Amino acid sequence: MQCSRCLHNRLQPVLYGPQDFLEQAMRRACKTGNTHTIRLATSYGAHVSLIDARYNCCSTLKLAAERGHVEAFDLLVEMGATFDHSNVTLGPRFSRKLCSPVKEAVLFSFLKAGFASLKTIELSLPSVIRTGGSPELVKALLDHGIDVNKHERVYGPKQHHIIVTALSTAIAENKMSIFDVLTERGASIHGTEHCNPFQMQTPYPFRQPVHLPIYAAAIAMAKHGVTAVMQRCLDLGAGINFISRNREHPAARPVLTTPLLTYLSAIEGWNEDGKLSPIDGLMFLLGHKAELEIPLNFKKSGLEKEYPQIQTTIEVLLDKWGIEKLSNPEFFATIKFLIDKGAGRDAINRILTKYRAVGGFVSTGLLQNWTGFAELFIKRHFDAEDPSAKNVLLRESLTQTRTNSLAFSYEYGGQNEIQLGTVRCLIAAGADINAHKDGAPTILHEVCGYRTMSNFSHICGHEDIFDCGHFRRMCSFFSFLHEIGADPRIIIKGKSPIDVLLEPTQKSFRLSASGEKYLVRLGNILLGELDKYSLSDLKSLDAVPKSRKIRNLKADMATVERPAKSIALIHNTDLPRPLNVLSTAIAEFVKHDYFAARVPHYEIHIINIASYNLSPADSSSSPKADETNTAPDLKSPSDWGTEISKHSAFILLFPYQTWSYCTSLKHALSILPSHRIHKPTLLLGFGKEEPYHPNEYERTWKKKSFGMMRDFLRKRGVKLVDMESDGPGGWPKGGWPEFMVYADYWEDWITGGYNAFIGGQQAEAWENRDENRCIRGIKMLVAGVESSRK
After folding, report:
1. Where is the segment annotated Disordered (predicted)?
2. Is residue 266 situated within a structural domain?
3. Are 142 and 179 a contacting pair, CB within 8 Å?
């Protein structure tokens, strides 16, 4: 057609003549911005504003505007196109597209044409600012009647019930030039807290008060690492201590907040170079008279009937990041800074009793970090001379009056290492577990007196109470109470804790043998013994004069020398990653979940041979860890021998890899005198999952070093627990305790991914948590120790 004018003149009426072809051409031209085709189509009768109903009555202006074709939009306006048609809808989606940065030129033309006054259009000033609109465009929108203080919803993921204004958006985006334009045009620096831009009235209009400029400035401080925008807000009179509230969902209780708390909750990361450090940000806010925390008796107007919660600065950080973040130096320094400033003083009991580790597993490092935090907190907020406040917290931590107490944890789920650490810190700081006054019971009286009928009936129903998880947990709890000095001799209103413990045996109904055995075991634990006293002995101990008789028993027990009731769990972290971190994780996991609870009267001591300078004879064949241990305080070989001599039995944790990975452990045992290693020993292996081989009974992995380690120990005269014979539970030959790490989990242990944990089906695969080879092994190990004592 372009080569022949005659052909062009003949074919053009054919192409643009039919109505369908004409509509299609007009639609295509508007979408692509082809001004020539628009002129041509309108010359043949195409409607300048609308396209046929079969195309849902599309607006030509809308098509051109949505795709940012300024020339096409201007041409259509010039030709008389309008939006003023009843079958054309301009919803929020079109408004958001029009306010995007790539459509800025179109938006100028849109405003110039006078379309801002249309009732069906809702131009969003916050959207223009958020997507990078220029100050000139903001001025143009304000010139065309956009309300500078209008509240608008934010659309997008994780933006449910978020309300903003133009000024709060400019502040949050750190756009100072637009900030100046808005404040000059009358934007309120104080904002309006109570707003509801939704069509339906709701008591839950906003989730966070980000529509208030001072709160938006707090978020900008954390997000952009600058204080200039906050300084401008304060210079214009914004209240740095204005208290608002957060509400995550309609059913949630409101939580009172301040700009300082909002700043802390908005921090996105730690140890980020080039950004404002959290401590510097806090110092800036405190320097401008910001209140560190909300007073406990503060009453927020309008929320009197909703009982709003009040959080401390410490809780804001720990609730968001978890106690695991205490290992981060900058995070811990921020916590310390807040504590030094007096944070958490009014909520210390709540803070020290509310936190748990994610997944329930507590590493040694995490426990050390939490202990450091608790010691700092207690030292700062408790009177060193007056133990009364510490005694109150100790009682709350241990007794059943709180659902997050240790008694509750042991009763229903197992030990809470974090809270055990808190209790030890309180005891070290001077709290008295035996404190009582005015006839009130001691902590031990309360613990001994608490028992739910359901759990007690559950225990009484077991023929072998050692198979009951609740029994094992309570034995561990009572052993802990005995460890920290709980005295069963104190008489309150004529009863000692043992009297209270044995009260069910005085009732008219007859206890089962399991029930009596349970109470007798707990009573013996409180007296520091293992099944020495029968039920009648325990009852007779409490005859008058009670305290004297028990003191005599204590004296008798002190005069009898008994071998140490401890077991050494020996492992090595001087290995390549992930074997080194796996060795630590598995050692701690089996100690707390499988071993300590099953043998409460034996202490399990984890010994890492990497902390000793044992200097293997052939160190060249031993693989090195990723990071060489250069610590100057390595213990000597004599210290190694002394430590080993303290224990009655051994558990050897080693990798199922090549034999060279066991060189250090082999050498550590070889240098010991034979009499020190002739003790009951349990082997515990771990390794990476291998492809399944149907003709080999090695599960789905290879035990490369197992046979050599077993034979080496037997030649050295070590008394290995015989796990290779059939036994209770139906384990066939080869049923040694072992941990298989799945192949995908293995990679996460290398990279520090989500699945880098020990627990569930990963440990002792295909065996339940209450009875498996680890538990069978520890029972057989203790049986070997007890038989050697006789």
Report:
1. 618-638
2. yes
3. no
